[in-house]
Design brief:
about 250 residues, alpha/beta, seven-stranded parallel β-sheet, elongated
């Protein structure tokens, strides 16, 4: 296979799947990881992809990107289901659980339907709807609706959260730079996320490995601010090592 043909196919796979990993591409094209890294570096130089640790994302990814929930649902579905299952195993009957908005936390909400005695606090309208037919108690924060994410944000959401207490928060993020911390494209969403972290005894970040190496517009919190992380095995070794060095408890699925 010619080099340019392989690179064209890499872009096609990326556009189809929403992300690519160096190891997967090396196996798929039966070549070395060194060759794939060179391909990705060249494609980034041409502006055709956005290079990340261990792989690449579509070229459109930047700090202001704020894709809709429907668009996010198409990405990393398998990983999100595995993360959701691991998150559900951390929950015990009788607890109060906060779920922020997002496709990974929506998957967690579905995994929690098997419980009979939980209180779910959420700022996500779609999560509340998903749980409406269950036996779980659901508390919506109120606030102004963000149509992209079906989330409620603003002073009302923040004030509601500060009047509550929770055992565990499952927090999804759009960007996770190990050096700079957690981030999201929306300033109001970041403020609500920080309020959630303030009232939860345990904060668990839930994100697939494509989120690493990315920085969105608004910072949520530094890497030292959360207790545990659940992610998939596509995470770069350097990021995993840095997280463990920082004292984070990491669960790989």
């Amino acid at each position: 296979m010619l080099n340019e043909e392989r690179r064209r196919l890499i872009v096609e796979v990326l556009n189809r799947d929403g992300r690519v990993l160096v190891g997967d591409l090396a196996r798929h094209f039966r070549t070395s990881q060194v060759t794939i890294r060179k391909d990705l570096d060249l494609l980034q130089a041409q502006g055709r992809i956005h290079r990340t640790h261990g792989g690449a994302l579509p070229a459109s990814e930047n700090a202001l990107d704020d894709p809709t929930l429907r668009e996010k649902e198409k990405l990393s579905r398998k990983e999100k289901l595995l993360i959701a299952a691991a998150a559900a195993r951390m929950v015990k009957e009788g607890q109060v659980v906060i779920l922020d908005s997002g496709t990974t936390t929506t998957a967690i909400a579905l995994a929690l339907r098997k419980f009979t005695n939980l209180t779910i606090i959420t700022n996500a309208v779609n999560i509340a709807a998903e749980l409406s037919g269950s036996s779980l108690e659901v508390i919506l924060t109120g606030g102004s609706l963000r149509k992209n994410s079906f989330s409620l944000v603003g002073p009302i959401a923040e004030e509601t959260l500060r009047r509550l207490n929770a055992d565990i928060l499952f927090l999804g993020v759009d960007g996770f730079d190990v050096r700079h911390g957690l981030s999201t494209p929306n300033l109001l969403e970041a403020k609500v996320n920080r309020a959630m972290m303030d009232v939860a005894r345990l904060t668990v970040v839930v994100c697939d490995s494509s989120k690493f190496g990315r920085r969105s517009l608004s910072s949520i919190a530094p890497t030292s601010a959360f207790h545990r992380l659940i992610t998939d095995r596509g995470i770069a070794r350097a990021d995993l090592a840095a997280l463990k060095k920082a004292g984070a408890q990491v669960t790989l699925v």
